[in-house]
Fold this sequence. Notes:
Layout: E1 2-8, E2 17-23, E3 27-30, H1 37-49, E4 59-61, H2 67-70, E5 80-84, H3 85-91, H4 95-111, H5 116-122, H6 125-129, E6 139-141, E7 153-157, E8 166-170, E9 175-177, H7 205-217, E10 223-225, H8 235-257, H9 264-271, H10 280-296, E11 300-304, E12 310-314
Parallel strand pairs: 3-4, 4-5, 5-6, 9-10
Antiparallel strand pairs: 1-2, 2-3, 7-8, 8-9, 11-12
Zinc ion is lined by residues 14, 17, 66, 68-69, 180, 227-228.
Amino acid sequence: MSVHKIEIPTPYPVGDVNAFVVKGDALTIFDVGPKTMEAYDALKWGVHAAGYQLQDIEQVVLTHHHPDHAGWVDAFPNAEIIGHEYNDKWLRHDEEFLNYHEQFYSERLYEHGVPREYIQASVHVRREMELVGERPLTQILHDGDEVPGHPGLKAIETLGHAQSHFIFWSERTNNVIGGDLLLDKITPNPLIEPPLDRMLGRTKSLLQYNDSLEILRQLPVNKMYTGHGADLENIPDLIKKRLERQQLQSKKVHELLGEEQLTAVQLTERLYPSIFQRQLGLTLSKTIGHLDYLEANDFVTAEKNEAGVYLFKRK
Ligand SMILES: [Zn+2]
C-alpha cells in the first residue's frame, strides 16, 4: 500500500497528530485531526501534497474517537465515514450518550475520592466534544473486518487507550496503521471511559490496554504508522520496555501506599503533585490503572467505606 503521512497540529499537550492517506482500490484517509482551522489547513495541504483534493477522498477510517483523531470527518464531502460503533455515538453528539458519560464520570470520581463539590468542575465531556466532527459513521467495523477497498487490511480491536480503538494490519505487507496503541515517545494513557455495554461497569483500561499490546506483539509487523511521532519497527522490544516501565510505576504506587488505606485521589496527589489538580482526569486514570494492575496481581485490595468511596490497602 502507498502511504502518505500528514502531520496535523493539535491544541493538546501531545503536539501533532498523524493522518495517513492510503491509496488502495479506494482512496482512504486514516484519522483526520481535531476540528480547528489550523488542522483544516494542514489536512488540506497534506492531501494536496499526496496528489489529491479533499473531495477526492472516498473513505475516512478512524482509529479511535478522541478529538485529535476524529475531528475533521466533516472536511470530506464525498467520503464514507468508517470506524468503531463507540465512535459513532461521539460523532452523533448524542445527548443521551453525553449524559451517560457525565453521570459515569461523576460516579467514578466520587467513588475514587473526589469531594462532591469539585466533581462538576472536573467533568469536561462537552468541552472535549467541541473539536469532534459531526458526521455519523456510514459504516461500522467489527474486530477482524476487512477495511473496504483495501484487501487484506484487517481492523483489529485494541481497546484500552480508547473504548473505540482499532489498529489496521495488512496481512499482505505486515504494515500496521496503529493509532495510539503504541507510540514512539509517549505512553498512551489508559483512559477510563464508560463502556458501550452499560451492564459491564467500569472497564479496567490498563489491563485491557496490556491485552491489546499482547495482540500487537503476536502480529508479524514490518512497520507501524503511529498516531503521534515517528513510525515504529521492532515492536516486541518496544512493548517489552513499556511493560517494564509500567511495572516499575505500579511498584511505586504500591510503595507509596505503605501501610495506609488511601483513595485513588490521595495516591494521585502523591504520584503527580505538580499536575494532578490541572490534569485530574488524566492522572487519576493512570493511578487507577496501576491500582487495577496491583489488585489483579493480588498486591492490593479495594474496599468501599460507608460513604461509598474505595480505599486501597496492601494485601
Ligand atoms: Zn491521539
